[in-house]
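Data availability (excerpt). The following record was deposited with the supplementary files.
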Amino acid sequence: MKLTFETFARFGKSRRWFTWYFGVGIPPALIGTVVAGYRISPWVGVGVVVVMVAWSLELFRSSCSRCRFYGTTKCGLPGMIAPLIVKPKSRHTISLRHVRFNLSLDVAMIVFVNAVYAIGWPTVWPVIAVCTVGGLLTVFRRKRFHGLLYRLREGTHEQGVAVSISTRPDMRV
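Predicted structure:
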């Protein structure tokens, strides 16, 4: 098999890439965020743990429980943990406003993780920053990999307007 840019680009758009990147890569990065928080101070470390647990529970309750890959390894670790915490729900029982709220929470969490790394573990932060860009390019595009973002394209259920989550014309949904 010849390795070309197209080969890597095709793999970067695949479900397998998403599974490895988010399902296997994110949990260690989040554990590292806790370590970085404790490097700042024990109180910041405890605060990071509280934020992470609250965000994870909300994610499991609202997105993971409605994901078509609930209870499978296709989302890696989160897909296997969610069934231990929440029961499955229909994807259409969540309002678009709540999907937008979860999108805002995810973006806030991305900023939070990067800030904690930048302050508490600056030598590791550049790796996290590059991985963040890769994650953003993977999630915020046309494919239906992450949670309920595809529902924002449906848009007609509540307001009759589709919502764009990108400012780049080639990445609009």
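Summary of structural features: The CA atoms of residues 22 and 58 lie 17 Å apart.
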